[in-house]
C-alpha cells in the first residue's frame, strides 16, 4: 500500500476502520483479493512477482498492511519481499506487539517499510527505518511512504476524510470515494524523497495517475464490535476506471 488511514477505537460500532490505496506499476502481475488456498484463513490480494501481499485479514480478525518507505538510495536488489511480512503478520498467533518485536529484529533483511498489525486488541506500527514498534493509541492514524503520521498532503486529506466519515455509520462507497481524490498537492507542500519533482507531483495525490504506474486498488476493512469483518477491494484500470470489486463479510472465528 502507499496510503493508509486507520480509525482505531473511534466508532462505537466499528473499532477498526481502514481505508487504503495500493499504488504500483500496472505491469506487475497481481491477483484480486481472495481466500488463499495455500494459506488457509487469509483473505488478501496477491503479488504474483514476490508472492506476498500488501494488505490482508484473517478469519480470526487479525489485520495487517504495509507501505514502502520511499528512499531510492536504500533499496537493495537482494532484499526479501516485504509482502511476506503481511502474510506472516496476518496468520501469526502471537500478540501484535510480540510479532512487531520479531520484525524489528529482522528488519535489515528487507528494503525499508512500515507495517501495521492489529490482533483485535492492539494496533501496532513497525518502522524499519527508525527500528521502532509503536503501540497506537485510539485515534485516526495515517501511513504513506514515510513514517507514521507524517503530515504529507495526501495523508492529511485521507485523515480529514476518515475523521468526518466515522461520525456516522461508515459507508463503503463514501469511504472509497475519499481515496479517489486525484488532485496533486501544490509544489510548496511536496516532500523531497529523492525522486524527480515531476514524480513528486504525481505521487502527491491520494489517487495516483502516472505513466505506467498508479492506484491499482482501494481497500476498505471494517471490524464490527459484534465480531464481524468486512473487506472490500475496488480495483482500477490504468485510466482510473473500475476494474472489478471483491466484497467479503464473515464472522470472526
Largest sheet: 7 strands, antiparallel
> Which H/E pattern describes the elements?
EEEEEEHHEEEEHHHEEEE
pLDDT < 50 stretches? none
Q: Tally the helices.
A: 5
Considering DSSP H and I runs of 4 or more, what fraction of the residues is helical? 10-25%
Number of strands: 14
What is the gyration radius calculated from CA atoms?
A: 17 Å
What is the CA–CA distance across the termini?
A: 26 Å
* Average pLDDT taken over every residue: 97
Strand content: 35-45%
Task: Please characterize this protein's 3D structure.
- By secondary structure, the protein is α+β, with helices and mostly antiparallel strands.
- Helices cover 18% and strands 36% of the residues.
- It has helices at residues 83-91, 96-105, 153-165, 172-178, 197-202, and strands spanning 3-8, 16-25, 30-35, 42-47, 55-58, 63-68, 113-118, 123-127, 132-135, 139-143, 209-210, 213-223, 228-236, 242-251.
- Strands 1, 2, 10, 11, 12, 13 and 14 form a seven-stranded antiparallel beta sheet that branches. The protein has a seven-stranded antiparallel beta sheet with strand order 3-4-5-6-7-8-9, covered by helices on one side.
- A hairpin with a 4-residue loop joins strand 8 (123-127) and strand 9.
- The two termini are 26 Å apart.
- The mean pLDDT is 97.
Task: Fill in the keyword field for this structure.
about 250 residues; alpha+beta; 7-stranded antiparallel β-sheet
Brief characterization of the structure:
Helix content is 18%, strand content 36%. The protein has 253 residues and is α+β, with helices and mostly antiparallel strands.
